[in-house]
């Protein structure tokens, strides 16, 4: 117990000592010394401190021998400390300031990487995801032979899957809402139609998506529900459309776990379409 207390006390003393040292360096007017200390912090994995110092002195380094290195290191320190928004902005600044610089290729990659790390789950706004896709694509166009190309391509696939999932969740939401809000028959349209449009647009944009069956299933189910809840003058037309959709689903996905559902829909549709 006494030994543990001594260890904790020593650790606290070391933290206080390091903090005092950092504060003393931070207050110095010697930017070269600050820079060397920032490099030391970075090498030791103290990225927040490195970023704090570099943010303070990077402007003074501009035009000097350490200008490129200091700006790139600032971006990496921000990235490693998970300040991805700042990192992305810093890497973009490096690219615009030194388009043919020593670290230009890696800076371009880390613009996308920073946005990739900050991309939210599919249910949320996907603006960072779109930004990351654009950044990675620009990187691939500019550095087609880069050793980082496979990783950038893999990230692109992951981000595109996230956008596809976002569209699937949107379509699913419309389907779940169904005829809510009283619009099912009022204007002869419904959330089912919104589901159909969302899913169809997703299939056009991502024709080879691994979620293709999920979108197709929502379209089939929505068309059937739309027929079931239509006004009398639209029922025949919509049951025919739903029946065609069911056959199309079975043709494309003959081994689907929802095969029996499609067959049940067809049987119900034929009650209206057989005459």
Describe this structure in words.
It is a single chain. This protein has 275 residues and is mainly α. Helix content is 76%, strand content 0%. Helix 3 runs antiparallel to helix 4, helix 9 packs antiparallel against helix 10 and helix 11 packs antiparallel against helix 12. The N terminus is likely disordered.
Q: Layout of helices and strands, plus pairs?
A:
Blueprint: H1 2-26, H2 31-43, H3 47-61, H4 67-80, H5 84-97, H6 104-118, H7 127-142, H8 149-177, H9 191-205, H10 212-228, H11 232-252, H12 259-273
Helix pairs in contact: 2-3, 3-4, 4-5, 5-6, 6-7, 7-8, 8-9, 8-10, 9-10, 10-11, 11-12
Short descriptors:
275 residues; mainly alpha; 12 helices; 76% helix
Q: For the residues shown, what is the average pLDDT?
A: 88
C-alpha-based Rg, rounded = 29 Å
Q: What is the string of SSEs from the N terminus onward?
A: HHHHHHHHHHHH
Structural class: mainly alpha
Morphology call:
elongated
Q: Extract low-pLDDT stretches.
A: 2-17
Total strands:
0
- Share of β-strand residues: under 5%
How far is it from the N-terminal to the C-terminal residue, by CA?
89 Å
Tally of helical runs: 12
Residues in helix, %: over 70%
């Amino acid at each position: 117990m006494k030994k543990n207390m001594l260890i904790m006390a020593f650790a606290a003393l070391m933290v206080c000592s390091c903090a005092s040292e950092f504060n003393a360096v931070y207050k110095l007017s010697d930017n070269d010394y600050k820079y060397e200390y920032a490099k030391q912090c970075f090498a030791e994995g103290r990225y927040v401190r490195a970023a704090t110092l570099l943010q303070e002195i990077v402007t003074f380094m501009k035009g000097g021998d350490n200008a490129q290195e200091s700006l790139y290191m600032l971006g990496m320190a921000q990235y490693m400390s998970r300040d991805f928004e700042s990192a992305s902005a810093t890497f973009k600044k490096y690219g615009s300031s030194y388009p043919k610089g020593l670290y230009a290729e890696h800076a371009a990659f880390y613009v996308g990487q920073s946005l990739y790390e900050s991309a939210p789950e599919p249910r949320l706004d996907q603006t960072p995801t779109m930004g990351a896709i654009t950044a990675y694509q620009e990187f691939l166009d500019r550095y087609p032979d880069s050793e980082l190309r496979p990783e950038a391509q893999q990230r692109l696939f992951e981000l595109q899957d996230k956008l596809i999932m976002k569209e699937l969740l949107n379509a699913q939401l419309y389907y779940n809402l169904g005829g809510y809000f009283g619009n099912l028959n009022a204007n002869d349209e419904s959330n089912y139609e919104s589901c159909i449009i969302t899913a169809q647009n997703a299939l056009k944009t991502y024709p080879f998506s691994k979620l293709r069956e999920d979108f197709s299933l929502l379209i089939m189910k929505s068309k059937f529900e739309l027929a079931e809840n239509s006004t009398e003058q639209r029922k025949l037309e919509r049951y025919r459309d739903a029946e065609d959709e069911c056959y199309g689903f079975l043709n494309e996905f003959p081994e689907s776990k929802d095969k029996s559902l499609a067959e049940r829909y067809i049987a119900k549709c034929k009650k209206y379409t057989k005459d």
